[in-house]
Amino acid sequence: MRFLCLHGAGTSSELFESQTGLFIAATPTSDGLKIDQAVTNSSATHDTELASMSKSDNATYYAYYVPATRVTVREAVDDLEAYIAEEGPFDGVLAFSQGACLAAMHLVRQSLEQRSDTPSFRCAIFIACPNVYDLSAFVDRGEFRCMNPKDDGHPIQIPTVHIWGEKDGLSEQSRGVSELCEPSMATVFVHEGSHEVPKSSSKITLAGSVKAMRRGIALAALVQRA
User: Fold this and answer.
1) 35: confidence class by pLDDT, cuts 50, 70, 90
2) N or C, fewer C-beta in 10 Å, the chain?
3) CA distances (Å), 108 to each of 10, 25, 28, 114, 169, in order?
4) Which has more confidence, 6 or 126?
5) pLDDT band at 56 (very low <50, low <70, confident <90, very high)
6) Which among 155, 159, 116, 157 has a CA at the least distance from the CA of 134?
7) What distance lies between CA 83 and its chain's CA centroid?
8) Cα–Cα distance between 225 and 211 in angstroms, integer?
9) Whole-angstrom Cα distance, residue 149 to residue 175?
């Protein structure tokens, strides 16, 4: 399977590759992952701890958009869609934090606006995903609103995996994003950590994350055959 990988804000494709090394290797997708920052819009302040993982002292750190800024959010989603059209197809997306939010906004817009007969991805793996903006309200009308299942239902209708830490200050936001997805195809794993990509230092966290990811990929295969 070929996955598009989207890093979080204040990191880069190099750092995301370092973060996800063992996590990716333990999954059945490890020979088909494409870690990418081609849809990046702006530089960002880096995460000091993550920067220590970089192979370069002059590394550049990125963000896909400036939070709660209409122009950059719209451009980021448009750029992602253009990138998928040019570089795809992809079987799935593996994304962390801001990258996960970007992927979710794309899937929601694609579903609600019926931009395609089939979704861009067969499955999505969201790690520590924050609130998803209502693009119609935010971009078109200038109203800042985050989507929720009570008002918006389940616009994401593909197999999804949701991984977040119980100590993450954004954990309730990640839970809310999981509830925007079709419940029968959503797999949730909550680990004991914080706002992070599952690390090899915690065998329980890594094993649980890989198990959830494998379940999501298996569901995608079943849906494709149906």
Assistant:
1) low
2) C
3) 24, 29, 26, 10, 24
4) 126
5) very low
6) 155
7) 15
8) 21
9) 11
Q: What does each C-alpha distance from 3 to 32, 34, 61, 127 come to in angstroms?
A: 6, 6, 22, 14
Q: What average pLDDT does range 131-137 have in this prediction?
A: 92
Residue 176 has pLDDT above 60, yes or no: yes
pLDDT for res 149 = 95
Compute CA 221 distance to the chain's CA centroid, rounded to the nearest angstrom. 20
SS3 32: coil
The answer to whether residues 9 and 98 touch, using CB atoms and an 8 Å cutoff, is yes
What is the three-class DSSP state of 219?
A: helix
Give the amino acid at 114: Q
Tokens of 70: 């209409």
- Element at 21 (helix H, strand E): helix 21-25
Token pair recorded at residue 22: 């063992």
Mean pLDDT is lowest, of 38-47, 115-124, 143-152, 186-195, for 38-47
Q: Which two tokens stand for residue 32?
A: 């088909």
Query: Residue 9 has what pLDDT?
Result: 87
Helices 70-87 and 98-112 cross at an angle (nearest 10°) of: 80
